[in-house]
């Protein structure tokens, strides 16, 4: 239909036939009818001239032709004039595909609008006017299905409400926990600051000597008749045990371990002192025998240390195993120091004896000289 015919139509007819005319033109554009020049562009890109190629295929064909004919490709078939035609054909094909895509989209939207108008004007069946369009079958069946749908929907709403409430409660609880943590941290900081202040004041007082002239300095503490932090029965039992010399098991075990290691060190130190420096072959064998016996005793002592660590009430009071290597090194070092002290003492005594002999000789010589002078 030409434009003159459209102008002669009545306004109402023009308003009615214009969308149809545009739709027919768009459908003709999207139907695949292409011009001779566009077909030539497809042939240059070595694509079918029916216009059925998609943008990916067109791009792939253009890249393939560019590798062959681009002036900078370095290929023997490079041709600048031919590549300019390829580039122009590529642009023309892309523009055609874009117009075809927009035309198809517009046609689809027009069809959807026409279907919506038909649906809105078509008479609806009466059984779609109730039960919110839920269910199928007879009215009684649809009614039962609709009731079940309402029950399920109500259940979902209740569950969703509970989930939101739980999330809200969790958020409130998290905020309370964060607030409590901040308050606790603040209290700890205040407590530590007060403790540091008190400790600084005590150290300053000790440096000034304020605690040296106290009335109970150097005396044992008096027994408390009352302890507000302990019930009277426990307090009296503790007093009875202390008065009778009772000591906890871990204190007795600690004392026994320390006394045992001190005796072992003293015995091995005496053995090393009896041997020469440097040791002869026989003395070396004796020293190795004593070291082996010392190692056996040290292993038994370490077992006592393990038992002590099981009963001690404080982690800071626990003991570590005694090392054979460290003990032997300590004994040898102590022996060297003792031998050096003996050598120094011996040299000092020799010097004293020499000085005493020289002094006595000078005194005798002076007495003889005086007697000779007197006789003269």
Give me the secondary-structure topology.
Blueprint: H1 3-8, H2 11-30, H3 36-44, H4 55-69, H5 80-121, H6 139-208, H7 232-243, H8 249-274, H9 281-311, H10 324-375
Helix pairs in contact: 2-5, 3-5, 4-5, 8-9, 8-10
Organism: Cirrhinus mrigala (Mrigala)
InterPro entries: DnaJ_C_subfamily_28 (IPR052573), DnaJ_domain (IPR001623), DnaJ_homolog_subfam-C_membr-28 (IPR018961), J_dom_sf (IPR036869)
Domain J: 40-107
Descriptive account of the structure:
The protein has 376 residues and is an all-alpha fold. Helix content is 75%, strand content 0%. The protein has ten helices and no strands. It has helices spanning 3-8, 11-30, 36-44, 55-69, 80-121, 139-208, 232-243, 249-274, 281-311, 324-375. The longest helix is centred in the middle third of the chain and has 70 residues, at 139-208. Residues 1-32 and 122-128 have low confidence and may be disordered.
Describe this structure in a few short sentences.
This protein has 376 residues and is mainly α. Helices cover 75% and strands 0% of the residues. The longest helix has 70 residues.
Largest sheet, in brief, is: none
Strand % is under 5%
The residue-averaged pLDDT reads 80
Low-confidence stretches: 1-32, 122-128
Organism: Cirrhinus mrigala
Biased composition (Basic and acidic residues): 342-355
Region (Disordered): 342-363
Protein name: J domain-containing protein
Keywords:
0% strand, mainly alpha
């Amino acid at each position: 239909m030409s434009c003159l015919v459209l102008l002669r139509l009545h306004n109402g007819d023009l308003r009615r036939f214009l969308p149809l005319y545009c739709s027919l033109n768009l459908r003709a554009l999207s139907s695949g009818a292409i011009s001779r020049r566009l077909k030539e562009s497809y042939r240059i890109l070595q694509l079918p001239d029916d216009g059925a190629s998609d943008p990916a295929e067109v791009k792939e064909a253009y890249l393939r032709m560019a590798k062959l004919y681009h002036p900078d490709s370095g290929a023997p078939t490079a041709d600048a004039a031919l590549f300019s035609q390829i580039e122009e054909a590529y642009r023309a094909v892309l523009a055609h595909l874009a117009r075809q895509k927009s035309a198809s989209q517009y046609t689809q939207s027009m069809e959807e609008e026409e279907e919506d108008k038909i649906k809105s004007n078509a008479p609806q069946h009466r059984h779609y006017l109730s039960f919110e369009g839920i269910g199928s079958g007879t009215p009684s069946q649809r009614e039962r299905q609709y009731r079940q749908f309402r029950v399920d929907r109500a259940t979902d709403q209740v569950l969703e409400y509970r989930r939101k409430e739980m999330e809200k409660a969790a958020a409130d609880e998290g905020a309370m926990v964060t607030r409590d943590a901040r308050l606790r941290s603040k209290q700890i900081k205040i407590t530590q600051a007060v403790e540091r202040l008190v400790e600084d004041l005590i150290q300053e007082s000790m440096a000034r000597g304020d605690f040296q002239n106290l009335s109970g300095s150097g005396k044992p503490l008096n027994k408390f008749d009352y302890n507000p932090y302990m019930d009277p029965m426990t307090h009296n039992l503790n007093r009875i045990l202390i008065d009778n010399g009772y000591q906890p098991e871990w204190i007795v075990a600690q004392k026994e371990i320390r006394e045992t290691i001190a005796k072992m060190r003293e015995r091995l130190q005496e053995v090393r002192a009896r041997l020469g420096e440097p040791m002869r072959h026989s003395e070396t064998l004796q020293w190795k025998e004593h070291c082996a016996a010392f190692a056996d005793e040290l292993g038994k002592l370490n077992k006592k240390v393990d038992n002590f660590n099981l009963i001690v009430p404080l982690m800071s009071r626990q003991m570590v195993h005694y090392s054979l290597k460290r003990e032997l090194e300590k004994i040898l070092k102590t022996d060297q120091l003792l031998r050096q002290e003996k050598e120094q003492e011996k040299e000092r005594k020799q010097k004293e004896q020499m000085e005493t002999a020289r002094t006595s000789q000078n005194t005798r010589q002076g007495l003889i000289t005086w007697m000779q002078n007197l006789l003269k």
